[in-house]
Write a structure and sequence with these properties.
By secondary structure, the chain is α/β, with parallel strands linked by helices. It has a single domain, classed as 3-Layer(aba) Sandwich (Rossmann fold). The protein is about 45% helix and about 15% strand. It is built from eight helices and seven strands; from the N terminus they run E-H-E-H-E-H-E-H-E-H-E-H-H-H-E. It has a seven-stranded parallel β-sheet with strand order 3-2-1-4-5-6-7, sandwiched between helices. The longest helix has 29 residues. The termini are far apart. About 45% of the residues are buried.
């Protein structure tokens, strides 16, 4: 069988994998034959990894509880994975957070620091230690979760948008730095996702407009050409493409995975 689109036996770390997009991403990679290490700040990640391991025993799915903004914890995550499996093929830096910070003039420094610590530094650390290992291997794929909010400014999302814009430019810088080692680095930019984080946006928007949660969801779906929310499997599909010979020539790109919501 050709390995042109085959990820069987590849080792993947997925951060932000306790629930939602990250969990679905890890489960899809496991279903397709990857060994998966699922990391998250939430203790729930242990149960999520147990579910994936029971469903796909060959995945050897395991959990690590950590805060991605803790550099030494991320270092230990990567080193522990390599110690267990002997390599790291896929680093999916997916962990992120959103905090309602209001307008720029209303935003507090502690809010800026926390959002940047998780959304930028957390992904930076994942890239840093994955890169060190992949340089040794002279192979690998790094996929960072970006956002269309990081491409164009949105009112009351300056801090979140800035954190994702930083991820985008860092992704492209690393792609150039690590290209000589046969490693590709890209950012995946989801649109409106079926996730706990996004449902928070929906609730806030529904309240502001004086409509129900379901009415707000339908309003959003009308804006998406494919008329559905995004799921972890959609991002996992892009990662598997990038991690095999079929997508190995793609690097430094901000790849929209958004159902046609945005073309920037």
């Amino acid at each position: 069988m050709s390995n042109f689109r085959d990820v069987t036996g590849k080792v993947a770390i997925v951060t932000g994998a306790a629930r939602g997009i990250g969990k679905s991403m890890a489960e899809t990679l496991a279903m397709e034959g990857c060994k998966v290490v699922m990391a998250d700040l939430l203790d729930l990640v242990k149960e999520s990894a147990k579910e994936v391991a029971e469903k796909y025993p060959s995945s050897d799915a395991s959990a690590v509880v950590l805060d991605v903004s803790d550099e030494m914890a991320v270092k230990a995550l990567v080193e522990g994975t390599v110690e267990k499996f002997g390599k790291l093929d896929i680093m999916a830096n997916n962990a992120g957070m959103h905090m309602h910070t209001g307008n720029v003039w209303e935003t507090e420094e502690k809010q800026i620091d926390r959002v940047l610590a998780v959304n930028f530094k957390g992904i930076f650390f994942g890239c840093k230690y994955a890169a060190k290992q992949m340089i040794k291997q002279k192979s690998g794929t790094i996929a960072n979760t970006g956002s269309f909010f990081g491409k164009v400014g949105h009112a009351q999302s300056a801090t979140y948008g800035a954190s994702k814009a930083a991820v985008h430019t860092m992704t492209q810088s690393l792609a150039l730095e690590i290209a000589p080692y046969n490693v590709n680095v890209n950012a995946l930019c989801p649109g409106l996702a079926a996730s706990e984080m996004h449902w928070g946006f929906v609730e806030a928007d529904a309240k502001a407009l004086g409509i129900s949660f379901d009415e707000m969801k339908e309003k959003e779906l009308d804006e998406i050409p494919l008329h559905r929310y995004g799921y972890g499997k959609d991002l996992a599909g892009a990662i598997m493409w990038l991690a095999t010979p079929s997508g190995e020539y793609i690097t430094g790109q901000l790849i929209n995975v958004n159902g046609g919501l945005d073309f920037t």
